Every structure is written in C-alpha cells, then in structure tokens.
TrEMBL record:
Keywords: Hydrolase. InterPro entries: Isochorismatase-like_dom, Isochorismatase-like_hydrls, Isochorismatase-like_sf. Residues 7-178 form the Isochorismatase-like domain. The keyword Isomerase does not apply. This is Isochorismatase family protein. It holds the Pfam family Isochorismatase.
Length: 188
C-alpha cells in the first residue's frame, strides 16, 4: 500500500442505502462514481478504508443482523482492505481511524459515500480538524430530502449543496470524481 497517496474513505455504502424506502435522494450515479474511484485506488495500491455504521438503536436500518447493514456488493471491501465500524455519524469517533491513518503516515484523505449532511459531513469536519488534507467528492456522495429546523421541506439537492457549503474551505476541499481521478493518475 502506498502511503504517499491519499486514503479513499468510503462511508456507509450499505445495502439499505440503495433501497428506495430510504427516501428521495440526489446523485443517482454516486455508486457508479464510487465504484470507479474504488477501482482506481485498488489499481494504484492506494490506501482504502470502508466505513460501516453499526447502530445501537433497535429500529435502525443499520442494526446488526439485518440484510440492509451489509455492504453493497459492488462496493464491498476485499479481505486486505481496512474496515472501520462506527456507532455514530463521525467515522473518527471511537473507531481507531485516526490512529490507523497516522500509523501509515497518511496525511491526505478523500471522502465519498452517504449521507452528505450526516456521516460524510461529520467525518470530513473531524478529518479537517485533525489536520488531514481532506477532499470531499461531491458527485460521489448523496443526501436525502428532509425538513429543516424551521419546518421547510428541503430537496435532496438542497441538503447536499448546503452540507458541501458547510465544509468547503474550512474543513475540506470540494471536488468532483473526474478531477480526483485525474490527480490520482498524475501521482502514480
């Protein structure tokens, strides 16, 4: 594994996220883009981290023992790839992820997955605050429609865009999958 390349952190790409019952979402091609990034990272022997959410809540889609908690088959980790389990949205809290990255002298991370305004945003904030050079790939993340605090219905695109705006500049660089792939190939 090449620690001179950034680690690709794939967040919460569970079977449940591909289920229409999860809600109306944006970026319907996100999984395809994540798969392309995953393939490129594997080909470059770059560091990979798959994050799995294991909920403590009995009514969660991510409760252990349910089919929905399994990784989507096309994005499932290989036996040699690192898997982090988390119980809260932030992949750095009580997971050992920060230590794993530091032990390998990895200073840069690229974050993809779901949902942009929850686990992706929480993890990217921590990564930036911990000093990692952090990139969030906008077209390889997605969000779900929801109602804001004032009771206003917000589309998945609005939720996604606001989460990216929250991160841009202070915590992370926002990029797209084509640019990230181009940078990876230039580095290899």
């Amino acid at each position: 594994m090449r620690s001179d390349l950034p680690a690709l952190i794939i967040i919460d790409m569970h079977e449940a996220m591909a289920n229409p019952a999860a809600g109306h979402r944006n970026n319907p091609d996100a999984e395809e883009r994540i798969a392309r990034l995953l393939s490129a990272w594997r080909a470059a022997d770059a560091p990979l981290v798959h994050v799995r959410h294991i909920s403590r809540s009995p009514d969660s889609l991510f409760r252990p023992g349910q089919a929905g908690v399994q990784f989507q088959q096309a994005l499932a980790p290989l036996p040699r790839e690192h898997v982090v389990e988390k119980n809260v949205p932030d992949a750095f809290i009580h997971s050992g992820l920060e230590r794993w990255l530091h032990m390998r002298a990895i200073e840069r991370v690229v974050i993809v997955g779901v949902s942009t305004n929850n686990s992706v945003e929480g993890s990217a904030r921590s990564a930036g605050n911990l000093g990692f050079d952090t990139t969030v790939v906008a077209d390889a993340c997605f969000a779900f429609a929801c109602t804001d605090y004032a009771g206003q219905a917000r589309s998945a695109d609005e939720v996604h865009a606001m989460a990216l705006a929250n991160l841009n500049g202070e915590y992370a660089t926002i990029s797209d999958s084509a640019s990230v792939l181009h940078a990876l190939f230039d580095a290899t």
